[in-house]
Amino acid sequence: MKDITYGHFVSDSWNLFRRNVKHLLRNPESLFVSIFLPVILMLLFVYVFGGAIHTGTEYVNYIVPGIIITCVGYASSMTAISVTQDMVGGMFDRLRSMPVHSSSLLIGHVAGSFIRNSISTILVIAVAFLTGFEANAGLLEWLAAIGILGLFLLAISWLSVVFGLLANTVETASSFTFIVMFLPYISSAFVPTDTMPTWLQAFAANQPMTPLIEAVRGYLIGTPNTNEVWLTLIWFGSLLIISFFLATAIYKRKSRT
């Protein structure tokens, strides 16, 4: 059996990433949820609900960050499900018997999830411009927004891996991610939080999705976002670190059983 070096780790992770991409392309449901659902949701909200919702700016300008965050939540269920399928379907046991780095399976899933969500984000922004989106961002603001979104994508991807490792069935994995899918609806994603009932405003304004959305929105259309940026870095930087170490610990524990 060969020694597993850094080069082998990179090669193993790359091969497992390619495998996840091929599975995505061969799975119409996953492809729809991850790539096309964000665009459909944005068009639905802009053209069906947008005329009745007043946010102080063009609704398409307001909604783009919220659509991106919401659909990453939907896509997180696909990541959790694919991890669970590997765990219960024999892929995990097969890799344990091979000279493959133990973490490469997790890296492959996270990389696949990150690329999948990045493609959907690019599509949403492209279609948004076609429907009248007007960004006030310069190069630095665009880079900052991309950085914030990248942190969020990585954090949610690793959290989804944790959910997938903890679940014993595909159905359970899907239900674990419900809160990630649900939180954007109780935030500033689609309407300002001050339009919500008083008893709901405190939660909506202080849960992690709202500062994230406001930070991205601020970079793209110029609304104030200094505090939101710091809160986003704290929330999702912490989530990324915790999720990474949790996923690694759970995976190693399962490897020993």
TrEMBL record:
How is this protein positioned relative to the membrane? Multi-pass membrane protein
* Domain annotation ABC transmembrane type-2: ranges: 29-254
Q: List membrane-spanning regions.
A: 31-50, 62-84, 105-130, 142-166, 173-191, 229-251
Keywords associated with the record: Cell membrane, Membrane, Transmembrane, Transmembrane helix, Transport
Q: Which domain of life is it from?
A: Bacteria
A Pfam family that the UniProt record links to this protein: ABC2_membrane
Q: Which residues form a coiled coil?
A: none
Q: Does the keyword Transport apply?
A: yes
Q: Where found, per UniProt?
A: Cell membrane; Membrane
Tell whether S-adenosyl-L-methionine is among the UniProt keywords: no
Family, according to the entry, reads as follows: Belongs to the ABC-2 integral membrane protein family.
- According to UniProt, the name of this protein is Transport permease protein
